[in-house]
Design a protein that fits this description.
The structure is a single chain. This protein is an alpha/beta fold. The protein folds into 2 domains: 18-167 and 227-310, Rossmann fold (3-Layer(aba) Sandwich); 168-225, no CATH class. 41% of the residues lie in helices and 20% in strands. The strands form 2 sheets. Strands 1-2-6-3-7-8-9-10 form an 8-stranded mixed beta sheet, with helices on both faces. Strand 4 and strand 5 (71-72) form a beta hairpin. The longest helix is centred in the N-terminal third of the chain and has 19 residues, at 2-20.
């Protein structure tokens, strides 16, 4: 018992020292009137280290991976902390839609391409920074496509993390079919067809108004214009494709389809990892993990990313 206590104390001291060596900088980027507050963390003991820029998924996601009081998984913050301990710097920023003061400017021009502009702004901020040996762009979920389209700004490596393989309209229709059945999915499919054909939807089904409301329709058109399986073929830097076997939103088949489109990429399917990057043993915990930071981040994910970046 004494030996165990000594070992545990040593482990705690080691973690504490590692955390004390991490520098945190608050950085405000601006895309015209849009504010993009973010956090850069890195080891102060290293003169040069690789840098990750993380591109978030859909929704009003902040730099920690949270959305309002309901979704508090903190998966982006957790990933940054553990990669910092692996001597990898990390930059994460609030998505433009998570900052309330941005909304009056966002509504003037709703376009998927604005997310790409924001990501390129972050890349250009750190490109050429002598503190960093290279930039790895990690795109999560929707952000995987954003990162694909942003990589031309000049990055050294690219990681698709739970990235869909098909155009948005096809992906969301499949998700609705799985979760709500054929009846609603067929209406979603019909709405998208009308939207892509005419540029608008004459009469939106009341149960789908949150998705297909009038102001959002131009954004949906701009997003559905891209096919990730085609865009990934344009990536010229080393590429890693990751998906979890417990992901309820993006599936293993998506990762396999992306890999088929880009066979020189490395494909890793992580057992028991879900969409918010947590290890899920009991299926009942899958949805619960979206609302709590207490579920553990996948250790295999961390190892896989760290090894890819440092290779």
């Amino acid at each position: 018992m004494k030996s165990f206590m000594t070992l545990s104390f040593f482990f705690i001291i080691t973690i504490s020292l590692a955390q004390n060596n991490i520098v945190s900088e608050e950085i405000m980027l601006k895309n015209d009137s849009i504010q993009l507050p973010g956090t850069l963390t890195y080891s102060k003991t290293l003169k040069i280290q690789p840098l990750v820029i993380f591109i978030h998924g859909s929704g009003n996601v902040d730099r920690n991976g949270n959305q309002g009081p309901q979704y508090q998984a903190s998966y982006i913050k957790q990933l940054s902390e553990v990669l910092n301990r692996n001597d990898i710097a990390f930059y994460r920023y609030d998505k433009r839609t998570s900052t309330a003061s941005n909304m009056k400017f966002i509504m003037k021009e709703l376009s998927f391409n604005k997310f790409v502009e924001d990501a390129k702004l972050a890349i250009n901020k750190f490109k050429g920074d002598s503190r960093f040996s290279g930039i790895t762009l990690i795109g999560h979920s929707q952000g995987a496509l954003v990162a694909m389209l942003s990589s031309e700004a000049g990055v050294d490596k690219y990681i698709s993390l739970a990235g869909p393989s098909e155009a948005f309209d096809i992906t969301i229709t499949k998700q609705v079919r799985i979760q709500n059945g054929d009846s609603l999915a067929n209406i979603v499919e019909s709405h998208f067809k009308e939207l892509k054909t005419t540029g608008t939807i004459a009469k939106v089904n009341p149960s789908l108004m949150a998705m297909f409301n009038k102001p959002t329709q131009p954004f949906l058109i701009s997003w559905a214009a891209y096919n990730p399986s085609e865009e990934i073929k344009k990536i010229t830097v080393p590429t890693l494709i990751i998906n979890g076997t417990k992901d309820l939103q993006v599936f293993e088949e998506d990762a396999q389809t992306l890999h088929k489109a880009k066979p020189d990429a490395k494909l890793v399917l992580i057992k028991n990892m879900n969409h918010v990057l947590k290890t899920i043993i009991n299926d009942d915990d899958n949805s619960k993990s979206y609302s709590s930071p207490d579920f553990p981040l996948s250790e295999i994910l961390v190892t896989t990313i760290a090894e890819f970046i440092k290779k």
